[in-house]
Amino acid sequence: MRIPSAILLLLAVFFVSSATVFGQNQQGASKGLPKGVIASPDALPSVTTKAIEKDVAEALALIEANHYVGKKINYNDLFKSSIDAMLHTLDPHSNYFDAKEFEQFRTDQSSRYFGIGATIGDLSDPDGKVIATYIRATFENAPANKAGLRYGDKIVEINGTSVLGKPFSEVRNMLRGPRGTPAKIVVERHGTGKREAVNIVRDAVPQPSISEAYMIRPGVGYIAMTGGFNQTTYAEFVDAMKRLKAKGMNQLLLDLKNNGGGLVGQAYRVANTFLKSGQTVFTQNGRIDGVTIPYRAENPYPETMPVVVLVNRNSASASEILAGALQDHDRALIVGETTFGKGLVQNPFILDHGSMLLLTIAKYETPSGRLIQRDYSDGNLYDYYTNGGIGSNAADEGTPKGPEAKTDAGRTVYSGGGIMPDVAIKPDTITTERFRFQQKLNNPLFLFAMDLAYGKVKGFEQYKVDKPITFGYDITAADFPMTEELYKAFRTFAVTKYKFTPSQVDKEREFVERNLRAELVSAAYGSQTSLQVANEFDSQLLKAVELMPQARQLAQEGAKARRNNAVRLGSENDR
Q1: Beta-bridge partners for 349
Q2: Exposed, middle or buried: residue 226 (CB in 10 Å: 0-12, 13-18, 19+)?
Q3: Predicted TM-score of the model (pTM)
Q4: For a surface tag, which of 153, 160, 252, 439 has the fewest beta carbons within 10 Å of its beta carbon?
Q5: Which of 452, 446, 510, 417 is nearest to 154 (CA)?
Q6: So what's the pLDDT on residue 56?
């Protein structure tokens, strides 16, 4: 077996470092040895990269010859776990990607994947057994859309293999594949019950950073930038701003909830939209002490509209750079929960055989000088991702613990553990038991929605959606209204078909009406547009919309403070 040189070198560096620490520990421990017994560093064997490479190769040969798994050992997993363990002694965000993972990493950053371009989902019977996987929606210009797949199509076969009864995750993996490869899909149309063979050639399917952009209220535009910062993020943002301005937007709600970050350059460009030339967006501190690189805005005519930025505990990295820059310059009101707290910058290094090392090369600061990286001093990854950092409980305790800093207008903000919101708003939560019950309700909801969409529910033919999806639509109150009669019809359906009791359904009436309408909107206008239905029930988001006057006042105070500071500096220079 030939071991890749880059792998051996990485392991060698790790073991050399470990040996150095071991030697230091031995030297310190010698103080407690009996008189006359000395553990001298000179007596320890010399550790070199070449020696470690030889030892690693020998260890692997012994494992292969003697371990009960024998030659079936997965060397890729063995190397990967060793390198990841090494990297995580340094920091939690340096990682090793094997060739397959690296290819997926590059695909994700290109804002696309390869497949047919459809949202799919399971339908289970009253006993919880999966019946089949169905098409829930297709994406604009994607292969599935061009091939005529529709909401409610039951997927029967893929390339000659029956998928009835298989969970959607398995079906999804069969639908995805390299660009240009064929997928012969047999579907059963819900409207007619007839089966049809559809030939699709897999292609690139966009995974946009912005999942939805529409006018959430008169004058208030909403942009859901929840898909990370990828190569197309800024272009998507510019397009969304242009479209919303044409519809009368003069206030913006930018949703960064669950945005885990990505390309820092894209976050910089979005921040640059709202900051004036010369204002710092963030500062990067590299490995050389005293060397900092400030990244400043280059926009002589920035946007001046009020901005509210919505964040939660899953907003991280590049999204925190954006939120921190707008907060420190009093340019946006930050609303929601304290963000994750990732203040480290990674850079990819390509290794042999198509693998990649994503290595932390720097820390960054917000414009006010805040370091928002959460604590990793104990080296415990589980603790880091759950309880780490001073910001993890800050929203609950209401008492920040990091060093203070000041915004342009003199407001106090804090370092460490993420970006604390200017206005804390907790999300709606439900019990695990209730969540599980709602998941069971999704089955009759989906089946009833399919019957509605194909005109199979007597007396509700006006809800029929037996036509291709209309993309880019903003829903109105008149679209698929949830009436008392419709709700009662569903309740009867759920009781008859799925053996729920009327009282069980009544307790979840809001959930039923929300999801039933979302299903119909998805059938008619696509899965992205269906997010508009969910947003009308999101109390965190709706409260954020109400804070627009406060965002306007904050922006005015920040601009005034900068003008006064400029006048003061000018007077001092004239002396």
Answers
A1: 357
A2: buried
A3: 0.85
A4: 160
A5: 446
A6: 79
What digits encode the pLDDT tens for the residues 135-159? 999 999 999 999 999 999 999 999 9
Q: Active-site residue numbers?
A: 317, 328, 342
DSSP string over 176-211: --STT-EEEEEEE-TTT--EEEEEEE-EEEE--S--
Domains, the chain, ranges and CATH?
5-73 (no CATH), 112-206 (2.30.42.10), 212-424 (3.90.226.10), 432-537 (no CATH)
Burial 231-253 (b: 16+ CB within 10 A, else e): bbbbebbeebbeebeeeebebbb
Q: How far apart are CA 153 and CA 192, in angstroms?
A: 10
Tens digit of pLDDT for each residue in 460-492? 999 999 889 999 999 999 999 999 999 999 999
What is the Cα–Cα distance from 383 to 386, expressed in whole angstroms? Answer: 5
- CA 417 vs. chain centroid, Å, equals 18
Cβ–Cβ under 8 Å, residues 152 and 523: yes
**Region of residue 327 (phi > 0: left; psi between -120 and 50: alpha; otherwise: beta):** alpha
Do residues 393 and 407 make contact, with C-beta atoms less than 8 angstroms apart?
Answer: no
CB-CB contact of 313 with 388 (8 Å): no
Residues 133 and 163: beta-carbon distance below 8 Å = yes
